[in-house]
Design a protein that fits this description.
This protein is an alpha/beta fold. The chain folds into two domains: 113 residues; 361 residues, TIM Barrel (Alpha-Beta Barrel). It has a seven-stranded parallel β-sheet, with helices on both faces. Helix 10 runs parallel beside helix 12 and helix 13 crosses helix 14. It is globular, with a radius of gyration of 25 Å. The two termini are 38 Å apart.
Length: 492
């Protein structure tokens, strides 16, 4: 393999204030923002918003936990494969048939929530988000809105166990909550026929003469959210899922009222924008504007935008396998190196990474997921300073495959994710007038020295001076997971 010299420009003399785009660069309107018939007003100032969002922007890394009745089905229904958390609609099952099969399989073992959160902490996650209710409608808490919930089924309030575990382990608390509901008979999927719904459930309601009544479902939805925000202490994140077409905002969820209630009950809460139609599923929508009346951040799903969303708070939600919930057929797992590269991409492009686990029916975590999170955690222990609190550096134009982040006055370089470690030293050249006060080093490798020297090349009128960094090939061999990070410290 041939290792060439890379030309790197415009790195030095940067500070946090000089390098970062304004937080409102691509958000719609200046705060505060007025209400309209489909949106609640945003009453805070930009400074107040920045203060509320500061911990989330600093955290960078969270764990997503998909757990529900589908976890017991594990990818099939009576021997027929059909997906995971979407298995009910994929196979067209009515809710009674689905629950009869799935409920007896749902048996969370004692301490399972502790194990989830302890793994998140070990991996370096700063927050965790649990599915309090997915589209199947089964709640993981003791709601008073009916008996389709974990306390009635098992005597266990999984949400309480989860929040207790987060606080014990120093993680912020996040609640995922589906506004779609395939179990509640009043839920009206006809508002947007393209939005997912089990054909068997629709036929069952038709045969029994049960009418759709979205107003009644909205009351149910609001009551459950109120329970979540009043019974479990401080809630840091509310992760809505999801809207499509006409099934959004005021018409579908009474979203303005719902948002106002959440802000009143939990003034510091951070919410995504999935009460409205943009869901983050379309990579072609990478150049978006975020209306802050719809939510605080946007959620690209299973992809990381190539250029980030400049000026917009965003979080990429990603899986380690292919599925969200546990599926016995899901055997293609990403390597720790792939996940680490995703962390680097999010750090370099201004976003967060929400990495998923899908526990089994008893709450246990598949060994493959434990291995990935544990090994990522070992890398984060050495290199986390390049991730936490990082911001993009828009003034830097790196060679293809190279990434960098800025944390306060320190710049961090992430080499390309090569399939093989370099067999020769890797060279970067930086214009000398840009970087003469920088000291290079490798994180966690004090004995592996990055050589820095001044070199000149002929120019049109006068020689061009560069600072040349030579990174030893040994750095890749000694780095955790073979992924070194170069720190450029301000020497002043």
């Amino acid at each position: 393999m041939h290792w060439k010299t890379w030309a790197l420009v415009s790195l030095a003399g940067m500070s946090l204030s000089a390098a970062v785009l304004p937080a409102t660069a691509q958000t719609q309107g200046k705060l505060p923002l007025p209400a309209d018939e489909n949106h609640a007003a945003v009453t805070e100032t930009q400074d107040e918003r920045d203060a509320r969002m500061s911990w989330w922007r600093e955290a960078k890394f969270g764990m997503f936990i998909h757990y529900g009745l589908y976890s017991g089905l594990a990818g099939e229904f009576r021997g027929v494969p059909g997906g995971t958390e979407w298995i009910q609609t994929n196979l067209g099952l009515d809710s009674e048939t689905y629950a009869q099969e799935a409920l007896p399989l749902f048996r969370p073992a004692p301490g399972c929530a502790d194990a989830w959160v302890e793994l998140a902490r070990e991996a370096g996650c700063r927050y965790a988000v649990l599915t309090t209710k997915h589209h199947e409608g089964f709640a993981l808490f003791g709601t008073k809105e009916g008996d389709f919930h974990s306390v009635h089924a098992t005597g266990r309030d999984i949400v309480k166990e989860f929040t207790d575990a987060c606080r014990k382990n120093g993680l912020r608390v996040g609640f995922y909550h589906s506004v779609i509901d395939w179990h509640h008979p009043a839920y009206d999927n006809t508002i947007c026929p393209d939005l997912c719904y089990p054909v068997g459930q629709a036929e069952s309601l038709r045969q029994r003469g049960i009418p759709r009544n979205q107003a009644a479902y909205q009351e149910y939805l609001h009551h459950q959210v109120r329970e979540l925000l009043t019974q479990y202490g401080k809630v840091d994140i509310l992760w809505w899922d999801y809207s499509q077409g006409a099934a959004e905002g005021q018409r579908a969820w009474r979203a303005p009222e719902l948002i106002r209630m959440c802000r009143k009950l939990q003034p510091c809460i951070i919410m995504n924008n999935r009460l409205y139609a943009f869901s983050g599923l379309d990579p072609k929508s990478d150049r978006l504007q975020l209306d802050l009346r719809c939510g605080d951040f946007t959620t690209p799903e299973k992809h990381i935008p190539e250029e980030g969303y400049p000026g917009v708070d965003w979080e990429a939600c990603m899986t380690v396998g292919d599925k969200w919930g546990y599926n016995r057929y899901d055997l293609r797992f990403k390597s720790p190196a792939v996940v680490i590269r995703q962390l680097e991409e999010c750090a370099a492009r201004g976003g967060n990474l929400l990495l998923n686990i899908g526990p089994r029916a008893d709450g246990s975590i598949p060994d493959e997921l434990v291995d990935v999170f544990t090994r990522v955690g070992k890398w984060m222990k050495v290199n986390g300073e390049a991730i936490y609190g990082s911001v993009p550096v828009p003034t830097v134009h790196l060679p293809e495959g190279w990434l960098c982040s800025l944390v306060q006055e320190e710049t961090y370089l992430f080499p390309p994710a090569w399939k093989e470690a370099p067999s020769e030293d890797v060279v970067l050249r930086i214009p000398a007038h840009e970087i003469d006060t920088v000291e290079p080093s490798l994180l966690g490798q004090p004995a592996c020295v990055v050589k820095m020297e001044r070199v000149e090349e002929p120019g049109k009128e006068e020689p061009r001076a560069f600072i040349q960094l030579t990174i030893p090939a040994q750095a890749w061999k000694d780095a955790v997971e073979g992924m070194p990070v170069v720190r450029l410290s301000n020497a002043n």
